[in-house]
């Protein structure tokens, strides 16, 4: 057999093997499809997704991918495209390699405003206050503004009642509404040590503490 004939024989054998492999692969895919169903797209996390953080377009391109798997293996509620996850956040951390399900995603609430710091030489002190509803009438968030702290002493047992400013121009760090019926408001203020001691003594003595917003 000549060299050309041997080369032609090898070529025909290679083509035959390729055709046989293609036929076997087609038969295998047909068998898998008949047994497990056709291939369907599913969304998979390719990187860890933290809980509570809304999925932005850039993160979706970087951390989400579409895979095709037999329909029998597709979990209920599986998303099919990254666009379905945009603007939603995992309720719990999603590790890389996991399917992204609709039940795992939530619509995140508005970001909470940052609580301002107490400032140098001051410390956050929580005190019970009265009449705090006046601070919220405008609808604006009172946290971060300056207030005057007014203490009212009741009269009794030969003592005259008086009202005085215990601290002026202090920063209101946080304002908490009553946690339940019959309970009062509380405020966290940035106070110096003398101011803190004065208000703690007023609160212990059952004096009424009110906050007046400053312009």
Total count of domains: 2
Biggest β-sheet strands, sense, barrel: 5 strands, antiparallel
Which secondary-structure class do the elements indicate? alpha+beta
H/E order of the elements?
A: HEHEEEEEEEHE
What does this structure look like?
The protein has 215 residues and is α+β, with helices and mostly antiparallel strands. The protein has two domains: 38-109, Alpha-Beta Complex (Type Iii Antifreeze Protein Isoform Hplc 12); 123-213, no CATH class. Helix content is 25%, strand content 28%. The protein is built from three helices and nine strands; from the N terminus they run H-E-H-E-E-E-E-E-E-E-H-E. The strands form three sheets. A five-stranded antiparallel beta sheet has the order 5-8-7-6-9. Strands 1-2 form a two-stranded antiparallel sheet. The chain has a two-stranded antiparallel sheet with strand order 3-4. A hairpin with an 8-residue loop joins strand 7 (162-176) and strand 8 (185-191). It is rod-shaped and about 125 Å long. The termini are far apart. The mean pLDDT is 81.
């Amino acid at each position: 057999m000549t060299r050309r004939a041997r080369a032609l024989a090898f070529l025909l054998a290679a083509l035959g093997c390729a055709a046989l492999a293609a036929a076997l692969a087609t038969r295998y895919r047909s068998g898998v499809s008949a047994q497990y169903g056709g291939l369907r797209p599913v969304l998979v996390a390719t990187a860890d997704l933290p809980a509570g953080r809304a999925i932005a377009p850039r993160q979706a391109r970087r951390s989400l991918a579409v895979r095709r798997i037999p329909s029998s293996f597709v979990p209920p509620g599986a998303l099919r495209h990254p666009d379905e996850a945009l603007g939603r956040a995992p309720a719990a951390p999603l590790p890389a390699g996991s399917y992204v399900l609709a039940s795992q995603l939530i619509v995140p609430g508005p970001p909470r405003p940052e609580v301002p710091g107490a400032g140098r030489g001051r410390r956050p002190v929580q005190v019970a206050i009265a009449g705090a509803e006046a601070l919220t009438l405008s609808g604006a968030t009172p946290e971060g503004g300056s207030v005057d702290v007014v203490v009212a002493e009741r009269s009794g047992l030969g003592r005259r009642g008086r009202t005085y400013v215990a601290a002026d121009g202090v920063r209101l760090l946080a304002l908490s509404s009553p946690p339940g019926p019959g309970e009062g408001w509380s405020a966290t203020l940035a106070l110096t040590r003398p101011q803190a001691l004065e208000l703690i003594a007023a609160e212990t003595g059952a004096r009424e503490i009110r906050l007046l917003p400053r312009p």
